[in-house]
Design goal:
heterodimer, A: 212 residues, alpha/beta, Rossmann fold, five-stranded parallel beta sheet, 11% strand, globular, B: 327 residues, 2 domains, six-stranded mixed beta sheet, 10 helices
């Protein structure tokens, strides 16, 4: 079982490896180095090429993709209805790009397609890092804030709470992220409960054959 | 340190003013005044060492003028450079005249530094006694490392640790002395040492940037041209972090005075790193032969634009300005 990871930074990639292993319940082999995008629009631009590359040139079984929602629509249970697609929802968009890309690829390396495990952190991955430490930081709190026009926190505030500064060095940011995800290492259920955007990722991972 | 610089008829900078932050990334096309901005700062350094001019300016009306204002504790002070031509500035006037804060400010200005690092220069050896301060081209890098090793072992150890973290194929930094000369190399994990003149350009630039970042006595203002030069795009975050160590020491657990950074880049990948800090980006815009500066954060629609593109791509596209003119 081999996974590949497309993320926006080395910090995210390092933390996601821990979170993915927490969901699966065992250490996993990741394609290295990880694929890196320069922000959301770049994730969408790169995704088809990454999928094609993985499908034809590697033995990866699935691609893990995680993006921040920023201020876009949050993926809800309604979006899970068959055939539903929300054009402003990044989870819907990522799934659609995966679907459209892999359906045109001929089978290769003994598999029909590279599977996907897609998550969207609301509003940013630092919110996931704070799960279990700050009870007020949840996806529900963010949605409620959007509905009432009073955001409970900003992305900059989340970063400050995780890193203690708005200009963390790379090693410091990685150390902080790893310290925070350590809480989820043995039981990610709280993270899945508070952040459905992570639960969708976890569900995708559990659906990958032979992952456990 | 420097709060603002106003230009009049100085090269392409006909009439423009730029407010400076602790960290300033200047982006724009060739010939749009990025280097002129740094040049102006260095002329202030040069003229601050000379006696302050008094009386009425003797420059012809309409000649080049550069005016500096400063942050606290020198916020009431103005320094004006008078120039005969674009290439000769020969007078410095301060206002108010005889300001009591001038001697202290002058001492700070004397330490301003500017770099246009050259890998060919950095790859060579240096005189052992030439290591107190990295030269503008970095030609004495080996001597600076030797000086740091002996005079500030803690900073040298921190520099080495940081270097080896960023380039893990190496396990040691070696500085070797012979008969008053010094050179350096990087020890490979599998054995053997790569001497400086065989190191990659990017490795040399990285060592130089780290030598600046871990300088125990940094200047109050540091200017670096083309900071992205030689680096892989994925390594640029480390370069930015090294500069932030200087400009925002408190964010790195350091208690020393911040160093004001003025740097330039043509790399969209480096510019991407300032998405969360657009206030640190200055766009130099050229129209015909005249250039002007603008703060990226002054752009009212920036947040909306960033929802659909990266900062570097926005700049490259021309949406943000700061691109070459085309016929």
């Amino acid at each position: 079982m081999k996974l590949a990871l497309l993320s926006e930074s080395l910090v995210d990639e390092t933390a996601l490896r821990v979170l993915v292993a927490a969901v699966v319940g065992r250490p996993l082999k990741f394609a290295s180095p990880g694929f890196r995008a320069r922000g959301w629009p770049h994730v969408m631009q790169l995704l088809p090429a990454v999928l094609r590359h993985l499908h034809f040139n590697t033995d990866a079984d699935a691609l893990v993709v995680v993006a921040d929602s920023d201020d876009t629509a949050v993926h809800t249970a309604r979006h899970e209805a068959p055939g539903y697609f929300h054009p402003q929802c990044r989870l819907c968009q990522l799934r659609a790009v995966h679907r459209q890309t892999v359906k045109n690829l001929a089978p290769a390396r003994g598999r029909e397609q590279v599977l996907r495990a897609v998550g969207v952190a609301v509003p940013a991955i630092e919110a996931w890092y704070l799960c279990g430490r700050e009870a007020a930081v949840t996806e529900a709190a963010w949605i409620e804030g959007r509905e009432t026009g009073r955001a409970p926190y900003t992305r900059a505030q989340l970063k400050l709470r995780v890193y203690g500064t708005d200009r963390p060095s790379l090693p410091h940011a990685i150390a902080c992220a790893l310290r925070e995800v350590e809480r989820q290492r043995h039981d990610p259920r709280r993270l899945e409960h508070d952040f459905p955007g992570f639960a969708f990722l976890a569900a995708d991972l559990r659906a990958v054959p032979n992952i456990h | 340190m420097i709060a603002s610089i106003a230009f009049r008829n100085f090269k392409a900078l006909r009439s423009t003013r730029v407010a400076l932050a602790p960290f300033n990334l200047v982006i724009g096309p060739n010939g749009s005044g990025k280097t002129s901005l740094i040049e102006a700062v260095m002329r202030l350094k040069t003229l601050s060492k000379l006696p302050v001019a008094e009386g009425e300016p003797r420059q012809k009306s309409g000649g080049p003028e550069i005016e500096f204002t400063f942050n606290a504790p020198h916020d009431g002070l103005t320094a004006r450079l008078g120039c005969i031509s674009d290439s000769v500035c020969d007078t410095l006037r301060i206002s108010p005249a005889h300001a009591p804060g001038w001697p202290a400010l002058r001492a700070d200005l004397g330490g301003l530094r500017s770099y246009a690092l050259q890998h060919e220069a950095m790859a060579g050896g240096a005189r052992r006694d030439d290591g107190a301060e990295l030269s503008p081209s970095g030609h004495n890098l080996a001597a600076v490392l030797a000086h740091l090793r002996d005079a500030a072992p803690a900073e040298y150890a921190a520099l080495t640790a940081e270097l080896l973290r960023i380039v893990p194929e190496f396990v040691g930094l070696e500085v070797r002395e012979r008969a008053g000369e010094v050179d350096f190399g990087l020890r490979l994990a599998e054995g053997g040492t790569v001497p400086a003149d065989e190191l990659s350009q990017g490795s040399l630039y990285l060592v130089a940037v780290l030598a600046l970042a871990f300088d125990p006595e940094p200047p109050c203002v540091l200017c670096i041209e083309e900071i992205d030069r030689g680096f892989h795009p994925r390594s640029l975050r480390e370069v930015r972090d090294a500069l932030y160590r200087l400009s925002h020491p408190q964010a790195h657990g350091l208690s020393r005075r911040p160093v004001q950074i003025i740097t330039t880049s043509h790399s969209p990948y480096f510019i991407d790193l300032f998405r969360d800090h657009p206030d640190e980006v200055i766009i130099s815009e050229k129209h015909g032969r005249a250039a002007q500066f603008a703060r990226l954060s002054d752009r009212a629609d920036l947040a909306d634009l960033l929802g659909g593109s990266t900062l570097g791509d926005l700049w490259f596209s021309g949406i943000l300005g700061g691109v070459p003119e085309e016929r």
